[in-house]
Inverse folding.
RNA sequence: UGACCGAUGGUGUAAUGGUAGCACUGCAGAUUUUGGUUCUGCCUGUCCAGGUUCGAGUCCUGGUCGGUCAACCA
């Protein structure tokens, strides 16, 4: 039973389908493929997965789930030069982490190499493929242009017998790289460049990460992808728009091979503003040291987002909201940030931390004294319980929460002003201490002992409540404050002679030292917190008990920042 | 200058030929011991020109704009 036939009348949300779901439901109505829905996620293991892949993963696995079907994980590993097990492993980890399960259906195109070889021989014997001795440049030159037809290869009319023999010798390693290729015999005058006798096999004497040195000829994408789909009886082969022009070829091979007809459907890939999604460019950022690896929290990779503190739930929610369509689109990163705030608001334990400490002394509080206070672990979740922590005479507050000469809309602490210390007392600033350079080093306040949180005196209204950490109890911590990696909405929009790297935001990583309230041990990697009023943070894997390191996932929405920047 | 694909608020995405809806963003207000959350309200949209029809975002024709395609990458 699938959701779409289960709808309640008036349940508008589940009634709106994307265009792929429309196709699938029509196929089901028409009894196509015995109403089977079988998709696949087909990454090439030549890089790390990014948020754009997450969209595709959620689509493919999501569709299978929705229509009670299956989704395979298949590595499209037909190019030994660029692929590696490192990438295979990271991709598997990322898909699993996102919450999807391919069960026993983990496949590799390389597992089908023998089958592809047989397919090729079949086409050769049918007179639909031939071995061509032209080199890359000659083939390219003969292919023509989109507006001019190409020329037929002089080797085009070799006999099937000769072709079979030549192809066998290619496999046997008789020829050097690039010396010969196997081409489909289609139409050199086709308006579709991909139909102009495309290359099916090329000679690459290189070790493959799975098949080792067994092969020295490798199928191209066009002669591997659709064939793999067909072998796996994929019903809906979903890919991105740039493969649209390949579809006639995809269908040509299936028809000539007389194999199971998978259907290719294209959708628009995800683009995010202030972000690049090209694998090549991401690799450049890694290789040239602009970031600290594929899992740098500023990277749009799944591993980067994970280390940044994103949750699978947030990413899946994001993938759901961006929608599926055929028009090119650029999603606002604000939507991604919204989904992680939404998820973490429900889940994250609240704690107080100060990232830019300013000493505050409560002059009328007993010297050496302290007391214990209590606060909810998560106000959104009453069942989460409470935590206890200490208050004392000397505290740290956020430097931003004090201004000597406050502008009109500034509600926080200032000379002569009152604010509430969250979960503690109302205090009033009575003095400001500066060093010889004029920098504020300390502020003096008095507190009102009648206003302790939870007591009747605490109900007095003040303009603002600020967070703090008790200085003698404070635990030093490092905070990595991330900002967007690029300062331009479209990082590729650069002046002549420059590239996307000139759009990099020099301030994308700020590391600061501050304090957190103690009592949070043990801190496990990727544990998530909301530091009240600051944002959501997670524990970085390099963190130690002595020196916790937090990555800021995202700030809280900040009304004051907006006012301030006007 | 060819073929193919696409075009709905600022950004995305819906709407058997029948009231253009939803989300994000932005703005305004209410609530609030997080300038958070929550709640309420508001702004802004069918690329253009014709045609078919009682009725067009939807169908047809022509244009405009954008994208893709000339790797032995995927």
């Amino acid at each position: 039973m699938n959701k779409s036939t289960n709808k309640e009348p008036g349940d508008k949300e589940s009634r709106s389908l994307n265009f792929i779901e429309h196709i699938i439901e029509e196929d089901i109505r028409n009894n196509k493929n015995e109403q089977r829905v079988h998709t696949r996620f087909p990454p090439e293991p030549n890089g790390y997965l990014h948020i754009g892949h997450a969209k595709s993963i959620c689509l493919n696995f999501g569709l299978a789930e929705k229509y009670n079907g299956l989704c395979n994980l298949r590595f499209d590993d037909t190019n030994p030069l660029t692929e590696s097990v490192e990438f295979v492993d990271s991709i598997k980890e990322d898909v699993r982490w996102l919450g999807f399960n391919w069960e026993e259906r983990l496949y590799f195109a390389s597992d089908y190499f023998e089958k592809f070889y047989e397919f090729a021989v079949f086409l050769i014997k049918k007179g639909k493929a031939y071995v061509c001795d032209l080199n890359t440049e000659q083939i390219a030159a003969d292919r023509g242009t989109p507006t001019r037809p190409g020329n037929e290869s002089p080797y085009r009319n070799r006999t099937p017998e000769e072709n079979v023999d030549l192809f066998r010798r290619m496999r046997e390693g008789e020829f050097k790289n690039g010396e010969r290729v196997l081409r489909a015999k289609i139409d050199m005058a086709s308006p579709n460049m991909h139909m102009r006798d495309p290359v099916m096999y090329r000679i690459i004497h290189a070790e493959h990460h799975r098949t080792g040195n067994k092969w020295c000829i490798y199928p191209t994408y066009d002669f591997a992808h659709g064939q793999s789909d067909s072998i796996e009886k994929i019903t809906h082969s979903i890919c991105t728009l740039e493969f649209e022009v390949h579809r006639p070829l995809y269908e040509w091979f299936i028809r000539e091979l007389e194999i199971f007809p998978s259907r290719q459907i294209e959708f628009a890939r995800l683009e995010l503003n202030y972000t690049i999604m090209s694998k090549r460019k991401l690799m450049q950022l890694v290789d040239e040291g602009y970031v600290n690896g594929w899992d740098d929290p500023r990277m749009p990779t799944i591993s980067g987002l994970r280390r940044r503190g994103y949750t699978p739930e947030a990413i899946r929610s994001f993938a759901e909201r961006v929608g599926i369509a055929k028009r090119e689109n650029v999603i606002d990163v604000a939507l991604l940030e919204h989904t992680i705030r939404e998820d973490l608001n429900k889940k994250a334990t609240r704690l107080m931390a100060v990232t830019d400490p300013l000493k505050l002394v409560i002059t009328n509080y007993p010297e050496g004294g302290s007391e214990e206070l209590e606060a909810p672990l998560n106000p959104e979740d009453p069942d989460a319980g409470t935590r206890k922590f200490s208050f004392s005479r000397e505290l740290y507050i956020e430097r931003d929460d004090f201004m000597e000469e406050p502008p009109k809309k500034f509600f926080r602490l200032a000379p002569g002003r009152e604010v509430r210390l969250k979960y503690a007392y109302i205090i009033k600033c009575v003095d400001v201490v500066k060093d010889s350079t004029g920098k504020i080093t300390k502020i003096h306040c008095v507190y009102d002992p009648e206003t302790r949180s939870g007591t009747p005196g605490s109900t007095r209204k003040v303009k603002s409540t600020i967070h703090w950490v008790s200085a003698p109890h404070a635990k030093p911590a490092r905070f990595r404050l991330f900002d967007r990696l690029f300062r331009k909405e479209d990082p590729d929009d650069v002046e002549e002679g420059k590239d996307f790297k000139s759009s990099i935001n020099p301030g994308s990583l700020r590391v600061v030292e501050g304090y957190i309230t103690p009592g949070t041990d043990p801190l496990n990697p990727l544990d998530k917190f909301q530091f009240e009023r600051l944002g959501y943070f997670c524990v970085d894997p390099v963190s130690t008990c002595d020196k916790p390191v937090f990555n800021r996932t995202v700030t809280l929405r900040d009304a004051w920042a907006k006012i301030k920047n006007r």
The radius of gyration of chain A is 31 Å.
